[in-house]
Design brief:
Length: 218
């Protein structure tokens, strides 16, 4: 068995998620992106485009190749080891809890934003703006890696310096928080990122209390 086939057999969930996200991206390139986004991207609950399945399906859509690439790169880098440690079933539960948790955080902040809007034009634009991407779930994976392997060394891409996983997660979380506080107008769902980390943290704590004798989390 080749190294690639061996990795696939050890991390089937990660490989299937990579395939599903890639297929969804190709579908948005080949089919009507407006139709796919209207059905499967995440819209505010008050939006006429909102459907109850969107907190799950939005994770498989991306806003461009770079958005897809960096999310899938992080899924590949951190997901394989986590799946092997957690087991495929538990890994999938964790991944989707983080992703759906991120969606709930985004929907929650959307409710607050909508109630504070005074312009009808601004409201209509907001209700028609979708949220897409696996970033919330990926941020949850980063948190899990930092909690499970706090002293593992991560080599950053920009700048190319080594950093312990626990500080990497803390810094990323603080950056997201600062961007929220200073109301960065960059089109990125920072609340969703923090929501993915928060729900992942809650799930890890619950698992640790429920089966601490299994040695999965410490």
């Amino acid at each position: 068995m080749s190294t690639f086939q061996n990795q696939m057999s050890q991390s089937p969930a990660v490989f299937n998620l990579l395939i599903a996200n890639t297929v969804a991206y190709l579908a948005t390139s080949l089919l009507s992106i407006n139709t796919l986004y209207g059905l499967f991207a995440l819209f505010p609950v008050e939006s006429p485009f909102f459907h109850f399945w969107q907190p799950v399906t939005y994770m498989f859509l991306h806003g461009g190749f770079s958005h897809l690439f960096f999310n899938m790169f992080a899924l590949w880098m951190f997901g394989r080891g986590l799946e092997q440690e957690m087991g495929t079933k538990r890994f999938l539960v964790y991944y989707f809890v983080c992703g759906v948790g991120a969606a709930l955080a985004q929907l929650g902040i959307a409710l607050i934003d909508i109630n504070n809007m005074s312009s009808q034009y601004e409201l209509v634009q907001y209700l028609c703006t979708p949220t897409v991407g696996a970033s919330g779930a990926v941020f949850g994976l980063l948190l899990a890696f930092g909690m499970l392997h706090p002293n593992a060394t991560i080599m950053l891409m920009i700048p190319p310096i080594p950093m312990k996983a626990k500080w990497f997660v803390v810094i990323y979380g603080l950056i997201e928080l600062m961007l929220i506080v200073f109301q960065a107008q960059d089109g990125i769902a920072h609340f969703a990122h923090l929501g993915g980390m928060f729900f992942g943290w809650l799930l890890l704590l619950w698992w640790k209390r429920r089966d601490r004798n299994r040695g999965y989390y410490y």
